[in-house]
Specification:
Distance between the termini: 46 Å
Structural class: mainly alpha
Order of helices and strands: HHHHEHEH
Oligomer: single chain
Strand content: 5-15%
Number of domains: 2
CATH architecture of the largest domain: 3-Layer(aba) Sandwich
């Protein structure tokens, strides 16, 4: 969402319009095609595959819930805490998330590479996937060869603690 230090964020009204646009994938096939093309997908095969992917994979209620959940995600404060080499990929034809967001994320990570993938929209099911795969493989190879994961010794770990109280609990 919009904030003074995050000008790419959406207002409440803009976010509601975006959700309404996304839910058009459940309308007529022609209207769904138009909605998907608005994401930056242009190839007919990719557009048709994405419509099927969404329609077969989620109900309108589930997609709406996903948007509500995503609305609450804000990782800006924790970006500087990430201490591992990171690859930030961003589709150059993404019409949902502005290119500046990917650049912002990479800038606020300690060790990040930002790569714009020309011609790729917000999500890709077509030829863009091959370009993404190449970038990921190249990045992982370089990190492996540079022993990049050994640069810093972690001073904290993520742990989960489970506590159960057996005394006085109903059986």
């Amino acid at each position: 969402m919009w904030a003074e230090d995050f000008p790419w964020g959406r207002s409440e009204d803009a976010y509601r319009r975006e959700v309404d646009q996304a839910l058009r994938v459940y309308a007529s096939r022609d209207e769904a095609r138009e909605a998907v093309r608005a994401l930056g997908m242009q190839g007919d095969v990719e557009v048709e595959a994405f419509i099927d992917y969404i329609r077969w994979g989620a109900s309108p209620g589930m997609l709406g819930a996903l948007y509500r959940m995503n609305r609450e995600i804000d990782v800006r404060d924790i970006l500087p805490a990430v201490r591992v080499p990171t690859l930030v990929l961003h589709g150059g034809a993404d019409k949902v998330i502005p290119l500046g967001v990917g650049a912002y994320i990479a800038k606020h990570l300690r060790s990040a590479r930002f790569v714009e993938i020309p011609g790729v929209g917000h999500l890709t099911l077509g030829a863009g996937g091959t370009r993404i795969q190449v970038e990921i493989e190249q990045f992982l190879k370089e990190v492996w060869e540079a022993v990049g994961w050994e640069d810093t010794e972690p001073d904290r770990v993520l742990a989960t603690v489970l506590f159960t109280d057996g005394s006085g609990s109903p059986r």
